[in-house]
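User: Show me sequence and structure for the first protein, then do the same for the second.

Assistant: Starting with the first protein.
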Amino acid sequence: MLRLDKLKSRARSFERLVGLTPEEFERLLSKLEPLWEQAHRRSLLGAGRVRRIGAGNTFKLDLSQRLFVTLLYLRQYFTMHVLGILFDLDAANVCRNIHGLLPVLEQALPAPLRSRTLQAKPDEVAGNQTKKPRKIRSLEEFLEVFPELTDVIVDGTEQPRGQPKVKKGQTPGKKAVGRPKDKKRFYSVKQGTHTLKTQVAVTPEGQVVHLSATASGRTHDMKVLKRSRLINRLPPHVRVWGDRGYTGLEKVYPERETIVPAKRPKKGELSLEQRELNRLISKVRITAENVINRMKKFRACKEFFRNEPKRHGVIWGCVAGLVNLRWQRRLLLPTT
């Protein structure tokens, strides 16, 4: 069984394993403890419980060890079976410990705002709207947390997932014998495989401020943005930067200042001025690419996604919070 105290004495190895220094781990643990106590208490008081509080089996690992297992899972993406061998637990117990702690860990971290679902109806071009967009209740919170925010860079990223299977009671599609009807929904032509897509919004300094809900790999970046509720959450003065996948953004949100590289016209060429402008835009947009690269150093966000799709959002939320924690350390900002 891995000894946490011995690993902490080797600070460099500890950071490579979980992505945090021992000091950052201890600070995170102190924030996590009261949140875990509240969440665990609520679960014990849930409806339908027969046993009194305190009865039943207890956790074999204490909270610090469970936090270490969870961070190790996010960083290295070991299977539950391997983690069970390392910590002398059954794979099912490891799974329950990790997925029970992830939502509470996201609260303890400086995680970005995260949409739980995508809008059923995407934002349309302003001229076709018949009513004003619904105001988001978290706008005030957004302004309070980021009062100096002037620019946001958006970009989409994908993670491989398993091929959809035929569910019980469903019939295969007509064109692809033996395949489910929603096979094409998750197939990304760009990646050449089935994927899950997430839209990441970052500041020019490199802080993650928003994550969209999980979308299928086939969904276009522009469609994810229009359904993510991000634009309506941003203050009016904030500029939105995007890549060529967001061409036409100024038509959907004419009241916003949007900056998107010029796209080469069909059977035409860009002028020298347009090329230079695209180069300057890319120098700003590269921050989003670097942030996504830092997130994918946590293998739970890079490798083949082995969990249920409903757990994709909370895993990315925790990883984004860990990246923000490291960002605060680099800028020497207070983490309390």
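Switching to the second protein now.
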Amino acid sequence: MSRKGGGGRLQCAEAPAAADWSCCFLGLPPAAPSGVGGDGGGFDLSWTLHQSFHPPAGLFASVGQQVGVGFPGSSSSAPSQEASRDPYVKYVSPEVGQPVLETPLPGEGLELREKGKKKVVKLKIKVGNPHLKRLISGAIAGAVSRTAVAPLETIRTHLMVGSNGNSTTEVFQSIMKHEGWTGLFRGNFVNVIRVAPSKAIELFAFDTANKFLTPKSGEEKKIPIPPSLVAGAFAGVSSTLCTYPLELIKTRLTIQRGVYNNFLDAFVKIIRKEGPTELYRGLTPSLIGVVPYAATNYFAYDTLKKMYKKIFKTNEIGNIPTLLIGSAAGAMSSTATFPLEVARKQMQVGAVGGRKVYKNMLHALLSILEDEGVGGLYKGLGPSCLKLVPAAGISFMCYEACKKLLIEEEDQ
């Protein structure tokens, strides 16, 4: 039906039965009839929160606004540049063939899809800076992964320095007897504070270096060795230099119960009694240990990802495969570099409780090998893998998921 008056023209699509008048009052396209372009009479509606604040169209459009906005075929004139940007212009979804309203927004976007009886809400946040996107994703990944495995981290640290027992069961029972469940999470807050920025820097450095070193299609190789190997080593060194003091304080809080009240108290006492350089005790062996671990970890992860894509012939990797790939990479790198980690922990503890003080990394490795044998270099490997393997998988999974959630402008 149509109605003319005052030079304006209002036109609505006629329906065989019950007409959908929302197109007249809200400027929205009428709902498609059941069974058209979809299965089971479902519909597909996608919008963003910012759309509700656009100027009204349809019956309540202003005098100066083009008449017929939101009504297909209502204007005989060619659409102007303003009209081409109208938020209510209809598009057709290639998935279900139904009208979709969509407006790109600078900020948050919310997408709701209803098919049959299933409703899925997808929240996506646009981040204009890709570097900020990687930093935020890395921080979230580090905090989530470390909190999930905090009890295993505590047990592993006690086993590596030989306190509270010589097995996982003994350490667990001792902690539960003297401290309870809170003892398993001792130092976790400091751990999260340390790991969040550390993981953010690490993953950011790896992604940036790996993209820079990886040749584009048709280009020659920039370096003779795999780019992910060099990028992983660079990422490990970068994060360690920035966050090493937090790692040392966390270790002291875990081992020296009753000596420090909290993180700030430990920081002040170490500075006053042992000097600022004590915050970097064991930095050299730590760097020596981090470089091979990070290099093998990221190289294994990148290699396994490529193998997965080649075997399954896909460019997209889901959350579960990412979790498994990251866990496998963590197991490989942890086993290969564990002796260096043991020596680093022993050097960080220092002379606490009358323990032996090591001069350097080589002295620590040789002394442990002489006193305890080869087994001493792998003491705590079991709980270490129980902690590092899922932590690596969770970290990679959260990182990839957050990168998908935080959309860049060029991704749209």
